[in-house]
Structure formats: structure tokens, C-alpha cells
Specification:
9 strands; 244 residues; Nuclear Transport Factor 2, Chain: A; alpha+beta; rod-shaped; Rubrerythrin, domain 2; four-stranded antiparallel sheet; single chain
Length: 244
């Protein structure tokens, strides 16, 4: 039993321990009071059991949204910048670089290179000709290019809106395919038959014009390993001078 005293009028009495934190009423002054777990009598209704712990639990269950975002970024940063992630990222980059460097590419054929050089020469694309020049023969390529400009310019005058056609011919080539003497025959694509566009006939002066004389360009080529076939400017110049 507990010895209690009314906090309002001071009336004394006794109560079992089970009455702690329960509603009590003083028989003398009829005031409501309760006994705290420490044994003190306090006016008013007792606090509901678990009220404080419930409020605290709710506060813990509903964290600040800003805190959630910070925690997410913190976890993401740790995962992204972890040693394992860094090693994996570097490995993927090295794998991509190796694939780009060592993936075998189909080399451009000699005929393709000859056709590219021939069209660039006739069209006046000196930059492409320089890029195709073999090592140490750039000056020879330029001299050859200038020497054949008159016949190329004459062909361009007749070209109009039509396209160039190139036929390649192998003059001689060594068994090891380290060098080859070629001739590129550049001409204008001619229409083989009249084409009707509705009820309008094309210009007969163009369609029925005699086939233009092709320009023949002797070229010397040599293989430079991974760089493929390159135009030997010095020997090409010699072949051009020897042309009948």
C-alpha cells in the first residue's frame, strides 16, 4: 500500500500500488489527482500509458524528406566511387579502346583507291590527292596533278550535271603485290536510252551527243602496310611523261 496525500486539501489516505498513474478522486474535496511512478501526488488526469512513446515512435517513423535525399545521395556516392566500381569503369574504358584499335577492318582495295584518286584528280580535289600520296612523294604528286590539269578541266567542261565513271586497268603488278602500275579511264556517264518525264522529252542534244573521250590517268601505287595502297607521286609522274 502507498501512503498518499491529496495535493489540493492535504487529506491523507492509502492506496494500492496498482493505482499508480490512475485517476483518483479525493473524498474530502472531490479533486481529481493521480500518483506518479515516483510516488508523488499530482492534480489532474494521469498521462495515458504509452502516449509519450507513441509520439516519439511517430517522430522516428516520419524522417525529414531532405534527410532522405541526403541519405540517398550518400549511398549512391559510396557505390559509384567505391574501389570495385572504379576498377570496373576503368576496365570497360580500356576494353572499348582496345576494341577500337584492334578490331580488324577490311582494307580498301587497290581498285577503290585508284577510283577515288582519279575522281579527286579530275574534280580538282588536291587535298584528297595529298592524303593518298605515299611517304616522301608528296611533291611528285603535286607536280603530276598540275601537269594533267588541262585535260581534266576539259572533261569537267563537258560534265554538266552528269557523273563521272571510272574504269581501272592493271598494267603490271609484282607477285607480292607491293607495287602496281594502274591506268584509270575517267569518262562521263552517258544515257543509253531516252527517258520520258511525263509528256516532256529530255534534251536530245545531251542524250544523243557523241560519247566524250575519256581521260586516261597512269598511276603508280605501292603498299604501305596498315596504311594500305598509296599513290607513288614520283613514279606516277614518270609514267605520265612516258605516256604516248
Amino acid at each position: 500500500m502507498l501512503a498518499i496525500k491529496c495535493p489540493a486539501c492535504g487529506a491523507e489516505g492509502r492506496a494500492p500500488k496498482e493505482k499508480i498513474q490512475t485517476r483518483l478522486v479525493c473524498r474530502k474535496c472531490l479533486k481529481v489527482f493521480h500518483v506518479t511512478p515516483a510516488g508523488n501526488t499530482v492534480l489532474g488526469e494521469p498521462q495515458a500509458t504509452g502516449q509519450t512513446s507513441t509520439a516519439v515512435s511517430r517522430a522516428k517513423a516520419a524522417p525529414d524528406p531532405g534527410q532522405k535525399v541526403d541519405q540517398w545521395f550518400d549511398r549512391a556516392s559510396k557505390r559509384f566511387f567505391s574501389p570495385t566500381s572504379s576498377i570496373l569503369t576503368v576496365g570497360l574504358i580500356l576494353l572499348a579502346v582496345a576494341a577500337a584499335l584492334f578490331t580488324p577492318r577490311r582494307p580498301e582495295s587497290l581498285q577503290d583507291r585508284v577510283a577515288t584518286a582519279a575522281k579527286a584528280t579530275v574534280e580538282g580535289d588536291l587535298q584528297t590527292i595529298r592524303e593518298l600520296a605515299a611517304t616522301g612523294t608528296g611533291d611528285g604528286v603535286v607536280t603530276w596533278y598540275i601537269s594533267i590539269r588541262p585535260q581534266c578541266d576539259e572533261l569537267l567542261k563537258r560534265l554538266g550535271s552528269r557523273k563521272l565513271a571510272v574504269e581501272t586497268e592493271v598494267k603490271q603488278q609484282d607477285p607480292a603485290q607491293e607495287w602496281a602500275d594502274m591506268v584509270a579511264h575517267v569518262s562521263i556517264e552517258e544515257k543509253e536510252e531516252l527517258e520520258r518525264r511525263g509528256n516532256v522529252l529530255p534534251d536530245l542534244s545531251i542524250v544523243l551527243a557523241p560519247t566524250s573521250q575519256p581521260v586516261s590517268l597512269p598511276m603508280a601505287w605501292k603498299s604501305e602496310g596498315r596504311a594500305g595502297w598509296r599513290l607513288d607521286g614520283n613514279r606516277t609522274l614518270e609514267l605520265s611523261k612516258a605516256k604516248p
